[in-house]
Amino acid sequence: MHEVNVDLLIVGAGPAGLAAAIAAAEAGTGEIVLIDRLAELGGILQQCIHNGFGLRFFKEELTGPEYAQRFMDKLADFPQITIKTETMVVDIARDQRTNRVTTVNARDGLVIYNASAVILAMGCRERPRGAINTPGTRPAGIYTAGSAQRLMNVEGFLPGRRAVILGSGDIGLIMARRLTLEGIKVEAVIELMPYSSGLTRNIVQCLDDFGIPLYLGHTVTEIIGRDRVEGVVVAPVDSNRVPDLKRAFRVDCDTLVLSVGLIPENELSLQAGIELDQATGGPTVDSDYQTNVPGIFACGNVVHVHDLVDDVTEESIVAGRSAAAFVRNLRAQRTQHAQCAQSEQRVQREQCEQRGGGDSGDSGGSDVSSIQPAKDAFITIKAGRNVRSVVPQRLRRDRPSVLYIRVANPEQDVVIGAGGLRRKLRHVTPGETVRLTMAPEYFPEESQLTVTVEKSEA
Questions:
Q1: What is the CATH number of domain 128-260?
Q2: Closest listed residue to residue 44, CA positions, set 272, 321, 305
Q3: Which CATH number is 2-125+263-332's, of 3.10.129.10, 3.30.70.20, 3.40.640.10, 3.50.50.60?
Q4: I want to staple 225 with a disulfide (CB 3.0 to 4.6 A). Which of 230, 277, 324, 357 is the partner?
């Protein structure tokens, strides 16, 4: 075991970690360590071989690997970025002086990094079958959407011949198209809610264009088969989401693909004492994407599940620049502290010599609290009518911020209100995040800002 001092450590080298690392390096951060548990950089993008990425950020349509490669190519321009793949972070602990990040891999063994700042970019994971308590035995042929995607796009295997997809999130919709293109018949996409939770463009391009039926307000109540999936029982649900078994019907298939939600990877966040948002499942952050723990930042799907990787990139750039500013401020504080300590020690030494000896004392270390903004520099965000979540949860009064708003229920002809800002929209749906740019002139004088979705009067 050995210890290494670094300026910035980033956990996760997917789209969020890559963008944050490059942004921090461009902003002048010193030594940066980028850690990922996989053997390759790029995270989930490496298995997303479909196009549709980068339309806003790069102004062109790219596949997932192409999008990741744009950032991976940039890493060569920054020799201060050290990459550690196939490396696990096992612990994060914070004290007044540094963040102690314990890692392990087969090459270096156990290494503790003393990092001035940390960016959490671990992404999210899929909900498994156990999270939805679907009855039945445990036959072969049940996959999460991401597992089936990797099996096909990376490993080169077909999961089956006839498939049913439970959940109409974007990953499930994209997998419906991908399975169809590979010759697998998708019998149906089943959605518990009365609306799809995916982007409208994915519903059109992945289901409508291929004639794949979408059953809204339905769920899988039973999985049939012992050695291999033979079919599923599907039933409509009432307003309380209770299945009506009298109206249930069987769909024959040999594969069930689960696309039933994503969960931010929050184990390390909890270890570090970071406050989590119950609505998003990820850390609460401010406009700089700093958590409630000074010096620890978070970005990407570990904060909240995104619809578009372009949004992940944009907020990760903010996190990277903010972490770089934190490191610079901390370095300046420590330099000033050292100079003051030397001056104080000289005076103490001279006084000590006049008294005839003795210990000149130790001035101690620096504390990050002195470089943190005051509490009244922030505005707390509250979710109002028909708003499920808002990120970031705290806004800096002195700068504009982009709010990522997810509604609770679909509505037509609405007005989104936040402070003095009003924006009309023809429709909103839980499957599509609303981006709202807030300038300081729209901030209220109070310490709390409520974001609401109201019906438009006009």
A1: 3.50.50.60
A2: 305
A3: 3.50.50.60
A4: 230
User: What is the largest distance, in Å, between two alpha-carbon atoms of the chain?
Assistant: 96
Amino acid at 184: I
Q: Please state the φ and ψ torsions of residue 68, each to the nearest 5 degrees.
A: -65, -40
Q: Cis peptide leading into 440, omega within 30 of 0?
A: no
What confidence tens digit (pLDDT) does each residue in 367-396 have?
Answer: 565 567 777 789 999 999 999 999 999 999
pLDDT over 70 for what percent of the chain?
93
Cross-strand partners of 411 = 428
Residue showing tokens 């050995």: 2
* Helical pair 309-355 and 15-26, crossing angle rounded to 10 deg: 50
Q: What is the DSSP letter of 374?
A: P
Considering only CA atoms, give the Rg of the chain.
25
Residue 377 in tokens: 């520099």
Helix, strand, coil percentages, rounded to 5, for the chain: 30, 35, 40
